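Re: the 133-residue chain
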Amino acid sequence: MKNKDTFTDRLEAQAKARQALLDKAKQNDPTNDPEFAARQQARLEAARQREEREAERRRAREQERERQRAERAAAAERRAEEAARKAEEARLAAEAAAKEAKRVQRVVQAQARPAALGLKDLKAALEGRVGGK
């Protein structure tokens, strides 16, 4: 029986245990495994391919967004052109209506003057008839 465990004995036992764990970890180190490099290379290749697929999906999404932006811009431009065309048509219609109103007013004024003169003449002619009978 060993009852004389001293502090140094315990430190030595701890150092031996630590060394044994270190040796075991070195034996299990994947860099010592000949297939490790091949597995690591396969992982790296899979990661690279995954990244390429993801980048392609990002590019496709960005192209789709850009296409949608262009469609929205074209639609907005078409709406603006249509609004401008309608505004121009309304302006031309208003100008035509104003010209027509002026023309009608001139015609009415022109018709009113001769009618007034005609009434005087008619009145004189009637008076002449009445007086001439």
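The mean pLDDT is 86.
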